[in-house]
Amino acid sequence: MGRNREECSIVFTTSEEAGLKFSRLVLLGKVEADDRVLRIEAIKTLVVSRSQVNSVKVRTTDRENIFLFIFESEEDKQRVLQEAFSSAFKNIIFKEWPHDKALKDINFAKGPACWIQVHGLPPNQMTKENAKKIGAMFAGLVEFDHGDLSGDVLCSNGYMRLKVDVWADEPFRKGFLNRKPNGESYWVEFKPEKV
Question: Residue 155: exposed, middle, or buried by beta-carbon count in 10 A (0-12, 13-18, 19+)?
Fold first, then answer.
């Protein structure tokens, strides 16, 4: 008589050091392709030429159209993330692979999180509550920067600085109209920072 799944379980040990070292040098990329056959060499050539990295190894995974990109340096990885955010790769959604998540748990609907600057708000509107509202305009608020201040005002060099998740299939938001109490409105601008 065979054993069922509930009877058989294992508790694995983890290696934070090895996991972090791995995550520092890799990206996952989902290639949006029509019915063409995806060729690893073509994907590799595209990544190297668009981001000017020294070298990258590309491997297939067990998920359809998901590839593993292995870089020689963290700088090369960051260069690719920056280019991905600036739309250099229209058909590839890049994601970092956290050291504590399985490949099957990586969500490609969201692109890589990025820091944005929110220009045009007065200090009394640079609050945690408003940071959450701005995060909701994207795919979510990840964190915020207090700058040199403590308390409720989130001001860094005269603007609010937030890290947000972005939707991979939507263009980056440029800003929004903010209404004053007297009914007038003015433009508040989002500026993405380098990844």
Answer: middle
The CATH number assigned to the domain holding 45 equals 3.30.70.330
Look at the block and give the residue holding tokens 């990885």: 77
Question: Rg of the chain over CA atoms, in angstroms?
Answer: 21
**Residue 155 · residue 80 · CB < 8 Å:** no
| Structure letter (DSSP) for residue 159 | B
**Domain around 72:** 16-105
- Whose tokens are 């790769």? That residue is 89
Domain identity same for 74 and 128: no
**pLDDT tens track for 79-103:** 888 777 666 566 788 888 999 999 9
| Residues in CB range of 23: below 8 A, 6 or more apart | 96, 97, 98, 99
pTM reported for the whole predicted model:
0.63
Q: Which of 105, 135, 151 is where one domain is finished?
A: 105
Residue 38 half-sphere exposure, CB side, CA atoms within 13 Å? 20
